[in-house]
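User:
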Amino acid sequence: MAIHKHYAKGYYYHVYSRGNQNRDIFRDDSDYSRFTGKIKEYQEKYPVQILAYCLMPSHFHFLLYQPTKLPITKFIQALLVSHVRYFQTKYNLVGHLFQQRFQAKIINTDDNLLNLSRYIHQNPLAAAKNFSDSFLNSYQYSSYSTYSGTKKKSFVKTDLILSYFSKTNPKLDYKTFIKTPMKKEEINKISKLIIESNL
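Assistant: Predicted structure:
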């Protein structure tokens, strides 16, 4: 994969943002559910492909592909503006919901693409004491259950990521990949593509 400094057709991006002062941007199930519904709505409106995502109480992650000249920013901006308005109204919030403008880091290698998908899908484990595949499968607010085959989310495109794995049972191989802790050198390689500080 070549490096490109602008939003351009044919490139992959890790997009993320966190709440202002690390505060929650999702407070209950209805917040998550509405945001997920808006993901689907705006993904149908704007030509963006969602390879992976994870929503956490104070932040979110997307792994996106830009298939046309229309920048992925159109999708993200529409999604976040909608969420800010909803959140401010529901919780009578004054001021900024997000800490800063969302970050979009271009992904320049196949290894980084795969490891970012693992990083994103392993995010909920920070709240768990031990690794549990059943825990990740039951976590409603990420795309992992679509990859494992537990629950299909139509707006998540798994074909590309799964194409790197076994032709006979790619979902099983991907589950094994997710179960494998990331090595220090793997984390170092994607360190400039992720939220800088520990979550």
